[in-house]
Structure formats: structure tokens, C-alpha cells
Amino acid sequence: MPKVRVRFAPSPTGYVHVGNARTALFNWLFARHHGGVFALRIEDTDVERSKEEYEKQLLEDLLWFGLDWDEGPDKGGPYGPYRQSERRALYSEYAAKLIAQGDAYYCFCSAEQLEAERQEELKAGRQPRYSGRCRKLNAEEAARRKTAGEPAAVRLKILESSFFWNDLVHGPTVFSSEVIGDPILVRSEGNPAYSYAVVIDDHLMEISHVIRGDDHISNTPRQLALYRALGWEPPAFAHLSTILGSDRARLSKRHGATSLQSFREMGILPEALRNYLALLGWSPADGKTEILSPSELVAQFSLDHITKSPAVFDNDKLHWLNRHYMKECPPGRLVELAVPYLEKVGYLAGHPGADVLAWVERVLAAVLKNISSLTQLPEAVQVIFEFDVERARATPEFQELLADSGARKVLKAFIPKILMENPLTYERFREIAKAVQKETGKKGKDLFHPIRVAVTGAASGPELEKLVPLYEAGSKLPLAHHVKSVAERLREFAEAAGL
User: Fold this and answer.
1) What would the DSSP string read from start to end of 302-317?
2) Where do the DSSP E strands lie in 298-368?
3) pLDDT digits (tens, 9 = 90+) for 409-434
4) One of 56, 75, 97, 253 is an active-site residue; which one?
5) pTM for this structure?
6) Collapsing DSSP states into helix, strand and coil, what is residue 168?
7) Cα 176 to Cα 126: distance, rounded to the nearest angstrom
8) Residues 6+ apart with CB under 8 A from 317
9) 51 included as an active-site residue
């Protein structure tokens, strides 16, 4: 097999959508599997919509996603430059060559004329296509008008009746030239059309395989025509299936988060998203393994296992994977990722010290099994950082507790004993609970439910074995939001409950 060279060629006109991220991932996996080259090319010929901040963001997002590239605008390489805006001279050179050899021509039709033609075709129930009006112009006359400054686009002459290629995903594919017309190569203002620039770039960069979304299938015939006109061998094409939302419509913002940046802000780990997107439209050899490391994905990736049918984006599955990867995440890294979410709600201040970070690590260990993304963290740790007895009083659990004579008996015996302990360890907490059990005859839920509500202000949550030490240690730390000790909590509870 010749040297594999693939590319990911995004336009810096917005944030990286998961569909584009999957395309980048599949190209990267294919290159790494075959020991080939993965190039990043920026297609920024859309001058009005392309922005430098979007390019900067997409580079940052791809690196966060876990992809690296061998050639690109920030790295250079033997086939640069890697921004289309810096390759205009090449596009002009090949456009002139195509005109000179009679495979392209100047088109002087105005936007109004083209729209009128389009409407006529639609009214007649036909697929709109260019009529070829300027194709009949004498070459010398066309050159004279262009030299005189008359605005003109450059169009490719479509000579074939049909186009065939063996798509590496969809198999044998045929398009009739009747639905194509003579495509524009260079617009009248000088900007190259996508289907033109991409052919020039892919050939000159020696791209061996074009792996992209199936929304580009209709562009392939135009590109094949251009390859033939220039006498070039086209690359192999593989068109990836569309990603759908849960309603089977094309995935869009109305389905929720769709960009790498939005998933990053949600607290989805890059390894979870990467693993999940790899399984959207592709499966490993055994057809069932769902958790795969980057090295395992590289080792197993093959275009043969890409499915033709659309893939449905399943947020529940993504969150399941994210839960797994959060549990597998090294504690120090997880703390680093979690701190901004705790700072945002005022639980932590900027630049927490080592003692605070060590405590946060214990906090995460207590709540990790109850969350599937870091955005859920503030709510999960609320039981640790906050104790609002007035809010607790309004809950049914509090009211039921006060109406239960057995529960009141437990708390009247438990609270005074705890208030005498300083410092309080969980071992001592447990010893006091056992003493209260003997004194009141209450055990199990009858013993620990009233204690939990009194200490945490909630009827459920992490084990008291984890919470009590966190309350005690947190109350002594320089946190932005004071964590109340068990004694502080029980004093407030006893006062509110009239115990």
C-alpha cells in the first residue's frame, strides 16, 4: 500500500461540530493505524465568515480532543502553506492552465441572470443547473472582455455523461452529469470554490485517501471531472454516514451540545468523547467492545468496519462512558478539572493551596459514583458545602422527623454527646451512634435516618462515613465557602427543631 496521507480540512467559520470532530478522529486513526501522515489544512477562502479566533479555537479544541497532526499551519511541512488563503497563486495558476487547454471558460453571467435560470428550472420541475450560456462564447472574445475588466467567474466544462467511483464506505457509486452542470472553479471576485481548491490542495499535498462526511458525496463528481481535466489520479474516497439526533433528524444545536467546546464546558472528558465518537458509525472487530483506549482504537481501526447507515447520537451512552473515564482518571488530574466548576459557584477561590486540593480529592471520591459529568459536581457536593436548616425545615423529611417520637428520642440522645466531642472523628461518631442505639433501642434506618437528616439536611447522599471526616476537615480549611462542622450543623438543627 502506498504511503497513507490524509487530511482534516475545517473552515474557521465556527466551533468544531461533533460531526467534524468524528471526521478528524477517523482520519487520525486511519493515519496512525497505517503509520501514515495526518495533515491539518485550514480552508479559509470564505473571507466574510472565516475568523482568526475560530482557527485558534479549533486548534485548541482538537488538541484537547487528543488529536495531533504531522503537518499544519502551526507546524509547517513539505506541502505548505496549510491555509487556503495563502495558496491563491496556485489556484490562479491552475485556473489559467485549464482555460488555456480548453477545459474551462470565463462566465460573465450576473447573479440576477443565474437566479432567473434557476427559477425557470425549478418551475419546470428540473434540478437547477447552469445552462452553459457562456460556454458558447468565442475564447478570444471572452479573453478580451475579461481583460477589459468585466467581472467573470471561471467554470469547468463537464464532458462526461456520468461519474463512477468505488467509495470505500458506500461501495460503487454513480452520478449522472445531468445533475451537475458546469461548476464554478473561481468566483468573479477571485475566491476559489470549495470543490476546486480542495482538488488542487489534495493533489499537491499527495493526499491518498479523502475521508469526509457523506454531505460531500455530491461534490465528488465535480472533483473527479477536475482530476481528469488536469490529468491527475484521484485519491480514494470514503464518505462517513450522517450523525442524527434522537429524533432521527440531522444532529444540530436544538439537540443540545454539539461542539467540542460545549462538551468540554459540560465536563465531558476528552477520552470519553473520543471513545464515544469512534463508535458512531464504526465498530471494532468483535462488534461488541465499547471501552477502547487510543492505542486500541489505532490498532483496530479499519475503513471496512464503517457502516453506511446514519449513526444516532446517544447522550446517555456518552455519559455512561464519561462516568467510567472519570472513575479511571488520576485523582490529581480530576481535581484540576473539577476546581473551575467549584470556583464558578463560589465554593472555592482562585489558586487553592495543596491542603485544599487534597481535601477536594476526598470530596470527589465521596460523590464520584453519583455524577456522570463535571457540570453535575456543584449539585452533588452541595450536601458537603452547604447546610441551610431553614431550607431543610420546609422539606417533608424534616416535618416527618419532628413528628416521629422515636426519631426525636434518637436525636435528643445523640446531639448532646456529639457536641461534647472536639475534635470529632468518624470512629468516635460511630461509637456515639452505637451508644445511642443501646440507650434508645433504635437501630438501622430508625437510628441512622434521623442522624443523617440532622447532620446533612438531606434524606440521602454519600455515606456518613465519608461525609463526617469531610465536614470536620473542611471546616478548618481556608475555603471561599465555609463548610460547617458536624457540631455547627447539629446546634443549628437542634435550635430549629426545638430539641
Assistant:
1) -GGGB-SSPEEP-HHH
2) 311-312
3) 999 999 999 998 888 999 999 999 99
4) 253
5) 0.91
6) coil
7) 14
8) 276
9) no
